[in-house]
Design goal:
The protein is α+β, with helices and mostly antiparallel strands and 96 residues long. 20% of the residues lie in helices and 19% in strands.
C-alpha cells in the first residue's frame, strides 16, 4: 500500500515538473506578436503586462487616483511586445 502511494506521488510530481517546464521562455500568459496584444497585468498601479486574453477582470475594482512612480500610471509607461513577450516599458523618472 505504501509503495503504491509513493509511486502515485512520484508520478504526480514528475508530471507537474514536466508541465511547469513547458515553454518557460514564452509562457502563453505573456506571449505576443504585436504591442496591441499586451495589456496591464494588474488592475491598480500596474507594473507588468500580459497577453490581452489573460487580462485581469477589473470590473468592480476601485483604484486610487494617485500616479505611483515606477508603474504604468498616468502615462509613465506602456505595454509593448518585445521578443514575443509582453513587457512594461516604464519611463525612468528623476525626482528633484
Amino acid at each position: 500500500m505504501n509503495k503504491t502511494i509513493l509511486l502515485v506521488v512520484i508520478i504526480i510530481l514528475t508530471v507537474l515538473a514536466l508541465y511547469s517546464q513547458v515553454d518557460l521562455e514564452n509562457p502563453k500568459e505573456i506571449y505576443c506578436e504585436k504591442d496591441s496584444d499586451c495589456v496591464p497585468a494588474q488592475c491598480c498601479h500596474p507594473t507588468s503586462c500580459v497577453n490581452k486574453n489573460y487580462a485581469p477582470d477589473c470590473s468592480g475594482i476601485f483604484c486610487t487616483m494617485e500616479c505611483k512612480p515606477d508603474t504604468l500610471d498616468c502615462g509613465q509607461g506602456k505595454c509593448v511586445c518585445i521578443n514575443n513577450k509582453c513587457e512594461a516599458e516604464i519611463e525612468e523618472r528623476v525626482f528633484r
